Amino acid sequence: MWPSLLSRFGFTASLMALLAVVLLFSATQAHAQSGASSEADAIRTMLEERDAEIKAILNGTESDFSRAQRQELMTLINGFIDFRAMGQQAMGPFWSDLSDEQRTEFVDVFQDVVRQQSLSDLEVYNSQVTYDRIEVEDDSAFVRTTTRYQGSDTPVDYVMHHKDSTWLATDIILDEVSTAEGYARSFQNVMRRRGFDTLMNSLKKRQARAQQETSEQ
Fold first, then answer.
1. DSSP class of 167
2. In sequence order, which residues have a C-beta less than 8 Å from that of residue 117 and are 6 or more positions away?
3. What is the full DSSP assignment across 31-91?
């Protein structure tokens, strides 16, 4: 009798333990899914608000903007980009060879070039944007959007990470072409052949041209 009871008790205890593990896993998984869904909503809201603010300034046109409006557009268009992370990707293995001062100089100039060039064709920011998919895993996110511009649909994807209590883009993929990889091919080729000083001289020339073009708009 006792062995039978003990056997039943052992089976019941094992079953209860297994059930507890399953319930705990389900609760943890549900909590993680809920958290990811909440973060996805936050990302969508952030991008939609950014898009609405840009369109409000453009107001269907791309001319006759004040200096203050252009500065605001530049901030809105580029403010969600982590230029240090993108610059580090672009430099690849050469990043570890740079001093802190060189990294700061590179990121500052690289960022300014991109910011200035972002105003070269403002009409594109009047495009209709749809948010097709937002996937969040821990501190990383992938956002797939479709931009309708001049009657054509173009996929625009964002690779993002969570940093300093907000979501920032580390790469923008236009029609399956990575922005960070494009910069990487260009920058690393110069670094490999001619070094950091040559790269910075080239970037500073592009910076000066971009600043001049922005001032003339």
1. E
2. 210
3. HHHHHHHHHHHHHHHHHHHHHHHHHHHHTT--S---HHHHHHHHHHHHTTB-HHHHHHHHH
Q: How confident is the model over 30-46, as a mean pLDDT?
A: 76
Do the Cβ atoms of 128 and 37 come closer than 8 Å? no
Rounded Cα distance between 130 and 138, Å, is: 24
- Domain layout of the chain by residue ranges: 2-216
Q: How much is the pLDDT for 122?
A: 87
C-alpha triplet 152, 155, 157: angle, nearest 5°: 155
Contact 68, 75 (CB under 8 A): no
* Per-residue model confidence (pLDDT) at position 117: 92
User: Domain 2-216 belongs to what topology?
Assistant: Nuclear Transport Factor 2; Chain: A, (3.10.450)
Judge whether residue 28 has pLDDT over 70.
Answer: no
pLDDT tens for residues 174-216?
Answer: 999 999 999 999 999 999 999 999 999 999 999 999 988 877 6
Task: State which amino acid sits at residue 141.
Answer: A
